[in-house]
Amino acid sequence: LRLTELGDVPPGNAFVGPNAVRCNETGVVPVGSETDAVCSEIFATGLRNPFRLAVDPNTRDKVRFYIGDVGAKEWEEISECGTDYSGANYGWKIREKVLVSATVLQTAMRWKA
Q: Is residue 96 packed enough to be buried (19+ CB in 10 Å), middle (13-18) or exposed (0-12)?
């Protein structure tokens, strides 16, 4: 999530646009919204359970930080984040670092058959 000090949505968030809605009251898309509505507060998706954050103090013209994210079985992950990553999808639940999940592979095999 990314918000201003006053709780507003910054214009640089990835999901600001015609199908964006505020989800700040319930944490989910409000009932009665369009079917393709997304929460405008979201900056990036696909993290499973981030447990650590480290800000790069050497970047001055933009924000850059790293997130430690838990893995499911094989890998834990460190993801680079910040100003340049608006709308990033870090892959969970389809990928665990460089591995494609077994569920995705099974689904792909059923589609291929």
A: buried
> pLDDT by residue (tens digit) across 1-36?
888 999 899 888 888 888 899 998 888 999 999 999
Distances (CA, A) of 67 to 25, 34, 64, 77, 103: 26, 32, 10, 8, 25
Q: Which amino acid is at 84?
A: D
| Rounded Cα–Cα distance for residues 22 and 27 (Å) | 9
Question: Quick check: helix, strand or coil at residue 108?
Answer: helix
Q: What is the pTM of this model?
A: 0.65
Distance from the Cα of residue 77 to its chain's centroid: 14
In our burial notation (b when 16+ CB lie closer than 10 A, e otherwise), range 10-43 reads eeebbbbeeebbebeeeeebeeeeeeebbbbbbb
User: Helix, strand, or coil here: 39?
Assistant: strand
Decide: 98 and 75 in contact? Cβ < 8 Å: yes
